[in-house]
Design brief:
- By secondary structure, the protein is mainly α.
- The longest helix is centred in the middle third of the chain and has 29 residues.
């Protein structure tokens, strides 16, 4: 999908370079490297020494740009949360224009949590109790709920329970990103199985759950 292409090309490459970088370029490259380290090795892999080694600068140079490891990690969280919010806004556009919105929405959310690293990010934020970093996502989630509501009402006019459907989709995407691989291997399922299940369930939830049913 277009979003996957944009997200994979947008971050600066995590490579060593000999040319002189502006402070903005240096910070962006460090954050891009920190993101890759988070996805590959988890939160413990995001250290000043590891990032400095990957981009070919000194530990002191990174301290100059970020001040501390905690500030580097905060900058990484902020960048990744903004990317997640952007992915959700892309989902809003698909929902409003795509006849196959449930599958498109499923792919965008699953890709954000898996390839985009939002799964690792969410786990990191939860484990470190730094939920304030999720605030930029709040508005994007609200827009997505509104877009889904508009689309479903335009289709059949029936009231729907949109947040419950999004809750299920997001939890499925998060779980698949975190432990989906080992679970699929145990159960003999392929790499796409979880998102196929979610894409199948999402339209049923949108069609059948009444907005006044508070048990869901």
């Amino acid at each position: 999908m277009e979003w996957i292409k944009v997200q994979s090309e947008a971050p600066p490459a995590c490579v060593k370079t000999r040319r002189r970088r502006s402070p903005e370029e240096a910070r962006a490259q460090a954050i891009a490297c920190a993101r890759q380290l988070l996805i590959q090795h988890g939160p413990n892999g995001v250290t000043l020494n590891a990032v400095a080694r990957e981009i070919g600068v000194t530990h002191g140079n990174l301290i100059h740009h970020f001040g501390s490891a905690a500030q580097l990690q905060s900058a990484l969280m902020g960048a990744m949360v903004r990317d997640l919010a952007a992915a959700l806004q892309t989902a809003v556009a698909h929902v409003r224009s795509d006849a196959n919105a449930p599958r498109a929405l499923t792919d965008i959310v699953f890709d954000a949590f898996d390839q985009g690293g939002a799964g690792q990010l969410a786990a990191w934020i939860a484990l470190s109790n730094r939920y304030e970093h999720l605030e930029p996502v709040r508005e994007a989630v609200g827009d997505l709920v509104a877009a889904l509501d508009e689309t479903v009402r335009a289709t059949d006019g029936a009231p729907q329970h949109i947040p419950s459907a999004l809750l299920l989709l997001t939890l499925c995407a998060f779980g698949d990103a975190m432990i989906g691989g080992p679970l699929r291997a145990m159960l003999g399922r392929d790499a796409e199985s979880a998102r196929r299940i979610a894409a199948h369930l999402l339209p049923n939830l949108l069609d059948q759950i009444d907005i006044n049913v508070n048990n869901y």
